[in-house]
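Folding Task

Wanted — backbone structure
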Amino acid sequence: MQQTAPLEPEKYYHIYTRGNNKETLFREPENYLLFLQLYRKYVAPYAETFAYCLLPNHVHFLVRVKDEKALKPQWLTEDEAKLISIERQLGHLLNAFAKTINNKYSRIGRLLQHRFGRKEVSSESYFTRLVFYIHFNPQHHGLITSFSGWQHSSYHSILSEGKTSLQREEVLTWFGGREAYRKFHEKNAADFESIAPLIQGDVP
């Protein structure tokens, strides 16, 4: 079996997964809400989230794994701390979601194709392009005529001033403010072909 490099503390990653054989993961709006609730339960305590998009048969997140103190808090016993890793928490998320969906829709078998894929984000320019790419995905796949109309991404949460668990201010600072963030998305949505080669390897 091919070994996957572990997710390392304090590094940024694009993580993604999809339905087995491209099967639909989210059949109705409440399924999207369930996935985000489970994400907040299992993953958010151990990773900061900068962007996400949930599509009918796949998901994307841009995260930074928290430092060792967050991954292994002192109040845990030594044995309990050994059971904590971001990979394990991502597995708990997928297993809990699959179990709920299988029970709700009386289905059997594997729901998701594999564990979360990952690609390290190693430059500032890649970070900004990846935020856009994640938000643009629904339009890229022909699900909607304008990415900004998709309800299941972080695009509008980052623009808003309401309460959020996203790293909103860090994202906006990276882009240079709300207006620069919005304009970057609009410009690249109109010229996606120029940015697509820079995201090669980011799947699905």
The CA atoms of residues 18 and 135 lie 16 Å apart. Strands lie at 12-18, 47-55, 58-65, 117-121.
